[in-house]
Amino acid sequence: MINSEMLKKYIKRYVYKMFTAKEFVKVKSLEEAWELNQRRSNKIIGGMMWLKMSTSHLNKLIDMSELGLGTIEETDEEFIIGCLTPLRDLELHSGLDSYSCGSVKEALRSIVGVQFRNLATVGGSIFGRYGFSDVISVFMSMDSYVELYKGGIVPLSEFVNMKHDNDILVRLIVKKTPMKFHYYSVRNTRTDFSVLTCAAATDGKKIRIAVGARPAKATIFEKNLSDCKYAESFALEAAEKIETGSNMRAKAEYRTHLVKVLAKRAYEGFGGVK
Q1: In this structure, what are the phi and psi dihedrals at residue 176, rounded to the nearest 5 degrees?
Q2: Whole-structure pTM value
Q3: How many domains, in total, are found in the chain?
Q4: Taking the CB of residue 245, how many other CB atoms lie within 10 A of it?
Q5: Domain with 211 in it: what CATH number?
Q6: Which of 27, 157, 172, 270 is most buried when burial is the number of CB atoms within 10 A of its CB?
Q7: CATH number of the domain bearing residue 107
Q8: pLDDT tens for residues 24-49?
Q9: With b meaning 16 or more CB within 10 Å and e meaning fewer, what string describes 167-186?
Q10: Bridge partners of 23?
Q11: Exposed e or buried b per residue across 98-119, where buried means at least 16 C-beta atoms within 10 angstroms of its C-beta
Q12: Would you say residue 98 lies in a domain?
């Protein structure tokens, strides 16, 4: 039997710990969405996977679902991915899978679960610039750009370090630059946030790794293959140059060790000499 004290504890723990909003607005244009988004009390919504776990008290929720931004367009030169595209659509897209040598699917398959990936969007995953983001890591290894409504087209590697503002991330653009890719991650449990991620790419002249979950934002380490002929030397330099930190999932020393292990694995995976 539930007594009054138990009910009070339940309400305090569960009922009050949720976001609230006064109004839901389905916008007809990006300009309308941008204007509404200039107020801090308003928020653009996508899958709402993180918002629903917050305790924010918002004025207006801005819905852009009628603007046609939930699609993946593939041309001969690039992939154009709308900000409202679910992560599951990226995971299952045959063109992306083929171009990325399976890296996109590998990066996404362990993000929580299928139900989560059916709702979480590429726009929210990138705009949040989360340190743990597999999405950012895998696309930073590619020739990728974000299209901002007011800020124009910006390389993803620059965008992740930009100051947060109230612009709108409209699309992710991935150029079909001829490259080979690998993706690696280490997790304590399968669907947990990564302890470390390593997305690798090569065009035959350079090798690039994007290392995320350091636990800071992903960062890039790149070398000319002519300057680094052995996997061991490449891995050692990567571990020296890439800064890591500690949190509840791992200590900095362990993450630095993983940088060395995954960088070496990536180099060897491209056919490099041990």
Answers
A1: -85, 50
A2: 0.90
A3: 3
A4: 13
A5: 3.30.390.50
A6: 172
A7: 3.30.465.10
A8: 999 999 999 999 999 999 999 888 87
A9: bbbbbbbbeeeebbbbbbbb
A10: 60
A11: ebbbebbbbbbbbbeeeeebeb
A12: yes
